[in-house]
Design goal:
The longest helix is centred in the middle third of the chain and has 29 residues. The protein has a single domain, classed as NAD(P)-binding Rossmann-like Domain (Rossmann fold, 3-Layer(aba) Sandwich), CATH 3.40.50. Helix 6 packs across helix 7. The chain is an alpha/beta fold. The chain has 8 helices and 7 strands, in the order E-H-E-H-E-H-E-H-E-H-E-H-H-H-E. It is about 50% helix and about 15% strand. The protein is globular, with a radius of gyration of 18 Å.
Length: about 260
């Protein structure tokens, strides 16, 4: 299927590994001009080199700490200078510090707020004017199944990703008349370094192996397996397409059937 986004400029934040990188690769395969970001310059450069080798495309890469407003502004300006105005924005970030209400300190809450919610707000602020001017834009936020079914010991993720979901719905109502869509993709348990980290932490608490923890996660999914990053990326890329132009304000779970609710 031709998604009719060839030549569009795409920014994917937190995209040196995992779902972010898979998403960047998905857009490259559709013929888009893609920029990748990460706070880890070494990982970012390595990913750019690997993408160049495997897909014969050199993505623009910019070191950017998405917790810092000034670095977000700089990154967007660098991308605009290199590729032009951004047509498709994918707001992705690593998971905030795990923990329960009693174990998390005020600094953890502040960092989670900046990382999950304000990074999306800031990136969007910088790209929205050009989208409105061109009467085209796609804003897609990578959230989590925790927005529909809170996950134990992920208090910050449960809270701020839910806030991001509400923000996206509100924004979609404001910008729909400009042919700009705003949607969320809520991944289920996906084989990324973040999931591995959570499994290791839980294994320490329960005195079992992290392999057993990962297997237990897969057992809870009707499809009896964990997701691959590219399976999440496929939904993100589709939501950016012309074919998905009438889908907005939605949160779409890609979770192998994990969420038990029918809604």
């Amino acid at each position: 299927m031709d998604l009719n986004i060839k030549g569009k400029t795409v920014l994917v934040s937190a995209s040196s590994t995992g779902i972010g990188r898979a998403t960047a690769e998905g857009f490259i395969k559709e013929g888009c001009k893609v920029a990748i970001l990460s706070s880890n310059g070494e990982n970012l450069k390595k990913s750019a080199e690997e993408i160049s080798k495997s897909l014969d495309y050199e993505p623009v890469w910019v070191v950017c700490d998405i917790n810092k407003s000034s670095e977000i502004e700089t990154a967007v300006n660098v991308i605009k200078d290199s590729l032009g105005d951004i047509d498709i924005l994918v707001n992705n970030c690593g998971g905030p510090t795990p923990g329960t209400f009693e174990t998390l300190g005020e600094t953890d809450w502040e960092k989670g707020f900046e990382q999950v919610l304000m990074s999306a707000v800031r990136f969007t602020k910088h790209v929205l004017p050009a989208m409105k001017k061109k009467s085209f834009g796609r804003i897609i936020n990578v959230t989590s199944i925790s927005v529909k079914q809170p996950i134990v010991s992920l208090m910050l993720s449960n809270t701020f990703r839910s806030g991001l979901t509400a923000w996206a719905k509100s924004l979609s109502n404001e910008v729909g008349k400009y042919n700009i869509t705003v949607n969320n993709v809520a991944p289920g348990y996906t084989l990324t370094s973040r999931l591995y980290e959570l499994a290791v932490n839980k294994a320490k608490e329960t005195d079992e192996s992290h392999e057993h923890v990962l297997a237990s996660m897969a057992f809870d999914v009707p499809m009896n397996r964990l997701a691959r990053p590219d399976e999440i990326a496929s939904m993100i890329v589709y939501l950016a397409s012309e074919q998905a132009g009438y889908i907005t304000g939605q949160t779409i779970s890609v979770d192998g059937g994990y969420i038990k609710s029918a809604y």
